[in-house]
Design goal:
This protein is of the alpha+beta class and 97 residues long. It has one domain: Nuclear Transport Factor 2, Chain: A. Helix content is 19%, strand content 39%. The protein contains 1 helix and 5 strands, in the order βαββββ. The termini are close together. 20% of the residues are buried. GO terms for molecular function: cysteine-type endopeptidase inhibitor activity. It is found in: Cytoplasm. InterPro entries: Cystatin_dom, Cystatin_sf, Prot_inh_stefin.
């Protein structure tokens, strides 16, 4: 995936946590395990036919990077987990992937 101008890293907000919470269950299904801790830490966003969020999420001692698409309001689609990277660390930079 090509990114335009590099988005700026920001600390996760309540809005970003709510978006992460919406894709927690699909991620648990894909990984076939439960994540009792699922706290959004930081994110980058990019506007492309909606908003794409690249978010670092803490799961106990491990981290995952999730890519989430929030479609345009007129499309009336739910937030979707489009990609993810597991086994990330606290120091791993969130990037477009």
């Amino acid at each position: 995936m090509m990114c335009g101008a590099p988005p700026t890293k920001q600390l996760a907000t309540a809005e970003i946590q709510a978006i992460a919470d919406k894709v927690k269950s699909p991620l648990e299904e894909k990984e076939n395990k439960k994540f009792p801790v699922f706290n959004a830490v930081e994110f980058k966003s990019q506007g492309v036919a909606g908003r794409t969020f690249f978010t670092k999420v803490q799961m106990d001692d491990d981290f995952v990077h999730i890519q989430v698409l929030e479609s345009l309001p007129q499309e009336n689609k739910p937030v979707a987990l489009t990609s993810y990277q597991i086994h990330k660390g606290r120091q791993d930079e969130v990037t477009c992937f």
